[in-house]
Amino acid sequence: MKTIKDIVAQKSKERITVLTAYDFPIAAFLDEAAIDIILVGDSLANVVLGLESTTEVGMKEMLHHTRAVVRAVKNALVVGDMPFDSYQLNPRAAVDNAKQFIQEGCGAVKVEWFDEAAKTAASIVKAGIPVMGHVGLTPQTAHKSGGMKVQGKDAASARAIIEQAEKFEEAGCFSVVLECIPLELARIITEKLKVPTIGIGAGPHCDGQVLVIHDLLGLFSRYQPKFSKKYADLGPQILEAVRQYKKEVLSGQFPDDAHSFHLPPDEIKKLK
Ligand code: KIV
């Protein structure tokens, strides 16, 4: 099982691989592929539940999907993404909510930057729960920073993001996600911090990379962020398989003998 110590020790030695998962079968594949960290992201809202904003999921949905992921994982570190209302709306509830992720088998939680982020992260760390910080584009509060856009494009806003990452480190976070920032800025932060940075749309100089699994597999067609790379295009394959199934059911080709069960001949006689 990957530990926090293992992840921190990987900084500048071996890049850290992180992917999101929200269910048992995908989490099992990621674990088999030896992905270091599996993040049960609140991107669940967008790519699984079809909602517009990550703020529309709460603890109930996140814990439900966390349980499925944890059941599948034998080696990776599972990180639970704290939903907006579990810490930003009420920072005093943050520790209790973080504990629920740990009780479900997560090894850590993730929190996005907001006004009280450093204090909140420090209180969760003090309760013995490892925390991953998240700066740059923070989707839970993106409306306050101009929407889902690249952040830190001028010196003043870049400096603010550096300070946020440093505050997360001072609060005891074991790693910091850098989302959608210029690669030069990500490089500066990665060099400044002792803990690993995990980039998403932050260029190649981070200590690790994270992608949303639905983007990587081509399972989400509503939008494709510029920074995400499709390593497979499963959408058309799913469509083709489902169309073929429909065709075979309509024609009577499925189910054939190989996919059916038989009653022994003497039992048929008795039945008749
Ligand atoms: O919820 C999520 O998928 C995330 C990643 C983009 C880091 O927070």
Mean pLDDT: 97
DSSP strand count: 8
**H/E series:** HEHEHHEHHEHEHEHEEHHH
Radius of gyration (Å): 22 Å
Cross-sheet strand order for the largest sheet? 1-2-3-4-5-6-7-8
Q: What is the name of the CATH architecture of the largest domain?
A: Alpha-Beta Barrel
What would you give as the CATH superfamily of the largest domain? Phosphoenolpyruvate-binding domains
Q: What is the number of independent domains? A: 2
Q: Report helical residue fraction.
A: 40-55%
Give a written overview of the molecule.
- The chain is α/β, with parallel strands linked by helices and 272 residues long.
- The protein has twelve helices and eight strands.
- Strands 1-2-3-4-5-6-7-8 form an eight-stranded parallel beta barrel, surrounded by six helices.
- Strand 6, helix 9 and strand 7 (197-200) form a beta-alpha-beta unit.
- It is elongated and about 85 Å long.
- The termini are far apart.
